[in-house]
Amino acid sequence: DGVPNLIAVNQDITSDALDIALSYSKAIGGTRACAFKSTFKEETETDLFGEQVILTGSFPRMIKESFKVLLEDGYSPVVAWFVCFYEVKNIVDLFSDKGIDDMFKAVSETAEYGGQTRADRLVNDEVAVEMKEILNEIKSGEFHKEWMNETKNGLSTLKEYRRSNETEQLFNELTKILLPKIKK
After folding, report:
1. Exposed, middle or buried by CB within 10 Å (0-12, 13-18, 19+), for 138?
2. How far, CA to CA in Å, does 134 sit from each of 54, 59, 127?
3. Cα–Cα distance, 2 to 34 (Å, whole number)
4. What's the pTM?
5. Backbone phi and psi for residue 37, each to the nearest 5 degrees, phi listed first
6. Do 17 and 9 contact (CB within 8 A), yes or no?
7. 53-59: Cβ within 8 A, 24+ apart
8. DSSP at 154
9. Which tens digits make up the pLDDT trace of 13-42?
């Protein structure tokens, strides 16, 4: 219980800044989970990278593209949604509870084999090159400049991404309908 957090001290004029940061972490429940020592630079860069590459980048895109592929091949939208979206929670729970390696021990050998061998086709050296490029854009300040221009332009690019096509609209509608029913 508690929320893991990162602690950083940029200047330690009083020689007890880390202790003060740890006391704040303890007060909000961070040390019950864990508190990691970091730097402001490291936290900012890794947070942006994680968001862009995994959390709000490839992960949602892979879910929606998988859904689209199944629909295009004639599968039921409800079944496609369940497999591509809802079952992700089960795997994430396994990651969280057991770690990635032990997650593989918890799934069938068919799932493990298929996942391991097909992942190499999806996540390859080209993906790693792009990940490094994204990290370099963050570290160099290029992403910051791009984001500042985006905000000055009224979020025009972001608004364009928000406009959904038919498949995404169906996916979003199924999520609104099915998710509350399944969670009961």
Report:
1. buried
2. 12, 16, 11
3. 8
4. 0.84
5. -80, 135
6. yes
7. 53/131, 53/134
8. T
9. 999 999 999 999 999 888 888 899 999 999
